[in-house]
Amino acid sequence: MPKPPLSMKPTGWFQVGWSDEIGVGDVHRMTYFGEELIAWRAESGRLTVMNAFCEHLGAHLGFGGRVVGEVLQCGFHGWQWSQEGRNVCIPYQNRPNRGRRIRTYPVVERNESVYVWHDVAGREPYFDVPDVFADFNDGRNPDEFHRPRRLYRERLEIHPQYVQENGVDFAHFKYVHGTPEAVFTRHDFAEPVSFVDFRLAFAFGGADSDDAETEVAESCVEAINGGLGVTVTKSYGLLEGRTVQGITPVDDCTSDVRFTAYIGRDDDAYSEADAQVFGQEVIRQFEQDIVIWQHQRYSDPPALATAEHAGFTAIRQWAKQFYPDGIGGSAAEVYAASQAAGGTQ
Ligand code: FES
Ligand SMILES: [Fe+2]
């Protein structure tokens, strides 16, 4: 895949893990947006995500760094850093260095997932991470779902926007997933958190949909996009489920993909084993999309059929607000600017 023409440094919330991967006292190494980062969990349970390098002499805090109560102690000379990235102790001097600070990132843990806020301009979060239960306002809570199944794929050549565009792409369902075409009932791209609802009508039993034997069952999906990085969905009709998908840029070409699939208990009509099979099927369908996204070349302007025009135009216009240059972003331009500024991307 060629380097995407869209910036891989969009603004927003991005999933960087699942909460249970980072226990109390753990220091977890990761790379996102071209930066080496660490996530560490203090004794109180609070999670901090910060740049990985100690401001003293530059040790990587993910190698030898240690959680001590509520602070992180560097493995090189024992300097201690707070959850705000401030130096709070130099063990061989009676005053800390108050001037130096390690960059920290806003973090939210929600639906057992860890999200960080990324913004190249350093702005604070201006929208919220969607909640796969609370935001559908139907009173359902996590206890009413089976244990979720997860998919984690590292460093795929996928841009987050490709995944979002799937949400307006009615025609792909038939060809990629072997389902009926989707009929969209809602496209709302007015705010950074956007909404897409659609239905798929499945025909069972008869030779065709006009056959008297045929029963039609609808599967309905409501999706909430929290910026470009995170989408939560609710499906009902044929199968009650929820999904959380997180696409997080690692560098200028690749993203990590995380997907969590919940199946409803449905009055315990399904056993745990059945739910795991259904969950795996939901993941299989998502993997069918992944193959396309991984090898796709972003087409701009695309050749759209008349019926595709409104949805794609709306989502592409909406997406622009998350890019550093505000005009759709260009990885090449961001790279050139960073080079001109003496950066080493
Ligand atoms: S490099 Fe971290 S304490 Fe010296
Ligand atoms: Fe799809």
UniProtKB/TrEMBL annotation:
It catalyses: cholesterol + NADH + O2 + H(+) = 7-dehydrocholesterol + NAD(+) + 2 H2O; cholesterol + NADPH + O2 + H(+) = 7-dehydrocholesterol + NADP(+) + 2 H2O. Its cofactor is Fe cation. Residues 13-116 form the Rieske domain. Its EC number is 1.14.19.21. Pathway: Steroid hormone biosynthesis; dafachronic acid biosynthesis; Hormone biosynthesis. It is found in: Membrane. The keyword Cytoplasm does not apply. Its main location: membrane. GO terms for cellular component: cytoplasm; membrane. InterPro entries: Cholesterol_7-desaturase (IPR050584), KshA-like_C (IPR045605), Rieske_2Fe-2S (IPR017941), Rieske_2Fe-2S_sf (IPR036922). PANTHER family: CHOLESTEROL 7-DESATURASE NVD, IRON-SULFUR DOMAIN CONTAINING PROTEIN. This is cholesterol 7-desaturase.
